[in-house]
Amino acid sequence: MEYTQYGKTGLRVSRFGLGCMRFPPNEADAIEMVRYAIDHGVNYIDTAYVYKDSEVITGKALKNGYRDRTYLATKSPIWNITRHEDFEKYLDEELIRLKTDHIDVYLLHNLNCDNWEKVKKYDGLTFLDKMVQKGKIGHKAFSVHNTFPAFQEIVDSFDWEMAQIQLNILDEHQQVGVEGVRYASEKGLATVIMEPLRGGFLLGSVPEEVYGIIDAYPEKRSFVEWCFRWLYNMPEVTVVLSGTSTLEQLKDNLRIFEHSAADVMSKEDIRLIQKIREAFDSKKSVGCTGCRYCMPCPKGVDIPEIFKLYNSYQLMKTHWVDKEVYQSILVPSGVGADQCVSCGVCMQHCPQDLKIPELLIKVHGELKE
Ligand code: SF4
Ligand code: SF4
To answer: What spacing in Å lies between the alpha carbon of 321 and ligand 1's midpoint?
Structure first.
């Protein structure tokens, strides 16, 4: 296992972190999995109040000395907060669930537009400072599904020590993206990557050509391995989380991360990742190339961003994040398809001859469901 500095905190963490969102259904199997990970060098465990019974099971798994061998991260359920005092009330409940007297890294969970407003309204940032002083938490952090400008505002608003960001080979410039990882890292924050395989949905939607591309490449690695390698290759990435559901998956992840130093990919490797992306792109439902010639829309509709989200959603239909981003970020920000008045100005500039207003109505209907 490779280890690295956790931002400016002084902690030294494994580059692979165990995500506890998708435990196996059997509690004993889940406990065995957590302990197996720790016994094989993983020292970073990530859970959350809202991950069903994950905190309770994690607390049981960390008994018998395992807690002392890990840095434990968990998250505040911002959705449930209705007054300032609620922050500490939920934290205290989490400490009981996790059978510990402190959380090493405490996150404000999913700072989308609504949740970030709530944090400001109920002074969640002062709460974090107070909990550090009381010794209930070690380090202050947040997770996020949001745009890059909104992310910058959050990063610049407080003395954060870590940002947890969705990133994978297909989301290079989606949501916070690589730009966000670099921005946070430059500011001295640790960066923890979530959804490296889009909760596994990436694996269920791999076009056949991708396997052909990988098979033809001289360096033999699996698709999963290339996905992780692209992430840990970035020096700005601190920890990559993987929420394994079986011991076999965990063992495979541990093998992949055994040598997970940054800056190991060659130019040819990067070109391979680009080819993989192009194979995914060829399956797009809407043939938008993201050229942005249609912009700006006089009504503020972010046409390419909406089509990018829709294509991602179509590829992995069961995955909730694209809908969540559309409903909780794009629409409230006034750049959703609902703003379109079908003036047709954008169509005059689209080199792909897309019937943009018609497509926007269809896309809005599906993403709003
Ligand atoms: S048709 Fe809709 S999206 Fe296109 S320019 Fe007009 S308002 Fe904007
Ligand atoms: S001009 Fe057409 S292809 Fe280009 S971003 Fe707009 S909708 Fe997409």
So the answer is: 25
Residue the block writes with tokens 């439902």? 285
Asked if 212 and 268 count as a contact pair (C-beta separation under 8 A), the reply is: no
CA 252 – CA 244 distance, rounded (Å): 10
Rounded CA-CA distance 340/146 in Å is 22
- Classify residue 130 by its DSSP letter: H
- Residue of the nearest CA to atom 1 in ligand 2? 350
pLDDT classification of 314: cutoffs 50, 70, 90: confident
3-class state of residue 75 by DSSP: strand
Buried b (16+ CB within 10 A) or exposed e, 15-54: bbbbbbbbbbeeeeebbebbbbbbebbbbbbbbbbbbeeb
**What single-letter amino acid sits at 7?**
G
Domain ranges of the chain: 3-273, 303-368
Of all helices (H) and strands (E), which one includes residue 242? strand 239-242
Alpha carbons 324 and 146: distance in angstroms, whole number: 10
Residue found under tokens 């608003």: 157
Q: What is the Cα–Cα distance from 6 to 19, expressed in whole angstroms?
A: 17
In this predicted model, what pLDDT tens digit does every residue of 87-139 receive, in sequence order? 999 999 999 999 999 999 999 998 988 899 999 999 999 999 999 999 999 99
Task: List 278's β-bridge partners, or say none.
Answer: none
Q: How far apart are CA 316 and CA 129, in angstroms?
A: 39
> What SS3 class is residue 90?
helix
In CATH terms, the fold of domain 3-273 is: TIM Barrel (3.20.20)
Is the separation of the CB atoms in 12 and 4 below 8 Å? yes
Strand partners, 105: 73, 139
Q: Where are the beta strands (DSSP E) in the chain?
A: 3-5, 12-14, 16-19, 44-46, 71-76, 103-108, 137-144, 162-166, 190-194, 239-242
What is the rounded CA–CA span in Å between residue 236 and residue 364?
35
Instruction: Give the pairing of strands 16-19 and 44-46.
Output: parallel
Q: Which residue out of 301, 306, 358 has the highest number of ligand 1 atoms within 8 Å of its CB and is therefore the one to mutate?
A: 301
List ligand 2's pocket residues with C-beta within 6 A: 288-294, 303-304, 307, 349-350, 352, 354, 356
Longest dimension (CA), the chain: 67
The model scores a pTM over 0.85 = no
